[in-house]
Design brief:
alpha+beta, Alpha-Beta Plaits, 2 helices, 8 strands, about 35% strand, globular
Length: about 130
């Protein structure tokens, strides 16, 4: 069983900022090409970002009153519970906190339906 989450962020989160945030969050590998970025965590969580965005629509159903043009979109996949000594949910929390430090407005949602993390002018929030 796997869970699919989605990150949608404004232009403050560019490819370099995302790569740095993922490394700060503990990614064991971050790979970047001209049009994509992938990160792998010991918990089996993976993040894949398409660096070429043509649709800037915010797709999260519960936007938490955020309204921004999406400049970075990524999928986050949690593949099962992960190894016993590593928690994918702890890694997700580290990712959200690291991205928050970039100053980006963003939403992390479960299949665009339920918002789990978001950052607005007041700071980082979570609903897990």
């Amino acid at each position: 069983m796997s869970l699919d989450l989605f990150l949608e962020a404004d232009a403050a989160l560019d490819a370099a900022a995302l790569a740095n945030a993922l490394q700060a969050a503990g990614a064991i590998e971050v790979t970047r090409t001209s049009d994509s970025l992938e990160a792998y965590f010991a918990s089996w969580l993976t993040l894949t970002a398409d660096l070429v965005i043509t649709d800037h629509t915010l797709y999260a159903e519960d936007t938490k009153q955020l309204d921004f043009s999406v400049a970075m979109r990524a999928s986050i996949r949690i593949k099962g519970p992960g190894p016993q000594e590593h928690s994918p949910m702890a890694d997700l929390d580290k990712i959200a906190n690291a991205i928050a430090r970039t100053g980006s407005r963003f939403v992390i949602s479960f299949q665009f339906e339920r918002t789990l993390y978001w950052q607005d002018a007041e700071g980082l929030h979570q609903d897990i």
